[in-house]
Amino acid sequence: MKKVLLAAVVVLGATLLLVPALGLGSGDGRKVLEARVLAPLAPPYLGVAGTIRSVPGAGAQWSIGDAEADLRSDGRLEIDVEGLIVTVRGDNPLKQFGAIVSCQSIVNGAPGVTNVPTALFDANTAGDASTKTEVDLPTPCLAPIVFVTTPGGSWIAVTGR
Q: Alpha-carbon distance 161 to 144, whole Å?
């Protein structure tokens, strides 16, 4: 009986060591997404027609200078944007931006989308803003997308080009 119990403990210990080595751990802080380019909202993605994973596009075209988004497996999220402006205005009319991390996940036992919003973060009229925050990522979080949003939750920039 002791030998069986000892063997079970050894197998369990080896399994616990093997899971992180295979990359199956979810909260260890490794990078899930490293985007050095974000695409601004542009036609034909304006408004409801521009909905991606249930996140609608804003109502006006936006331009962006430079941007980065980094998402880690433990939920840490960093976003830096420069020059995120409404194109026809030539400036940013919003005092704050938000962000949404969108994941393909499991919803009610079936494949689905889970969108996790962040708190709002300050932006200036030049369209410069940054945040270091944490989000509660679902398990699994497959094919993540990071959106920069208006305070109302419409996207104005998204990971991609």
A: 15
